[in-house]
Amino acid sequence: MGITITEPVQPPARLLDLTRLVSRAGRVMTGVDRVEHAYLDRLLREPVPLFGLVRTSLGYLLLDGAGCAELLARLTTQDWPEPDLLARLARREDPLRAGAETVLRRVTLSRAIPALLGPMLRRHLPSGTVYLNTGHTNFTQTVIDALRSIDAARLAVLLHDTIPLDWPQYQRTGSAERFAAFLRRVGAQADLVICNSEVTRTDMARHLGADSVPEAVVAHLGCTPPAPGTAAEGPWTGQPYFVVLGTIEPRKNHALLLDIWRDLAPPAHLLICGQRGWNNAEVFAALDAGIPNVHELPELDDAQIAALLTQSSGLLFPSFAEGYGLPPVEAAALDVPVLAAPLPVLREVLGDIPIYADESDRYLWASRIRQMAKPMAKGYRAQPDEAEATQAGFVPPTWDAHFKAVLTLI
């Protein structure tokens, strides 16, 4: 008797929450933004009809496939119109987001105030629609109740990390409490949780308890480094330099690197590529005062950063905690040496490729940095010691593999 292989049943429609991407219009994308962007791009190319949900200051917008494609195109070009009067009044301090909401209202399929969100979704979405939330934004009880009013709807949430609960001292005021409520809703309401790593799945189970863990799948995030563009020039040009990439917030531990450059003066420049974040007054004050050979480059695009990385002595990643850690994965994919804190998720995704150094040992970090900064000869970057693993032949996780694991379930 032969074996019958059944193909996964595709849902009649998918509804992707795009609230976070719209809120970030015009800004340099963070790692979470990149994930939501990757889902938008991929789901538009799937045969299943795609809809988008956006929470605005004036209520909810429902986009059809054409509206989702319009958003993707605008995100690519960063071409946002002047906001209309409603958007200007609602988003006085955020004109780019106001422009994004303006253009989406022009192409929206439907709109509703919160009290009428359920009727709007039932009117336009078929039974069995799958809702995806990839940005930890807008997974509120109002949205959940509206979605549950659709017959046989399923809810899937991508969980990036549990850092707000594990490292509350590095969060904005109220963030830990808001995240705790979000995670409780995930545990109670999600039909599927997409975890970006086994570490994240373990952390979720630890916080929710064994009896409250929804069905979960681990799917590493894809890494598609951009083609290098033109590297920004400055005092570092032609000299050894390192790149640190990410929002300047306490969790990223820029303070360690500033201490090293200020007190131990390694023979290299430090390029800080990332926007200033929050709760980091001492680091901001040190940057404003100036440290020799330390340079802030907050406005570079992906291609410029890739160009800087490929010409650098390495990526420095002293972060205290990460849900995934895209910068080291992208650097390794570009064959750039990585010096990083020994985070469990980096060992899961990258194994022995990075050079690991405890994030509290500044003398070890300084020693490694000095060794990596040795002048390159014949295209070879100096390495700290002969025992170190090489990243030759490293194949980064792909989005195709990610979606192969995820889309069979949703």
UniProtKB/TrEMBL annotation:
Top-level taxon in the UniProt lineage: Bacteria
Q: Does the keyword Transferase apply?
A: yes
> Domain named Glycosyl transferase family: which ranges?
237-352
**Source organism per UniProt:** Alloyangia pacifica
User: Would the keyword Cell division turn up in this protein's UniProt record?
Assistant: no
Looking up Pfam families in the UniProt record yields:
Glycos_transf_1
- Protein name, per record: Glycosyltransferase involved in cell wall bisynthesis
Keyword annotations for this protein, in alphabetical order, are:
Transferase
| GO MF annotations, alphabetized | glycosyltransferase activity
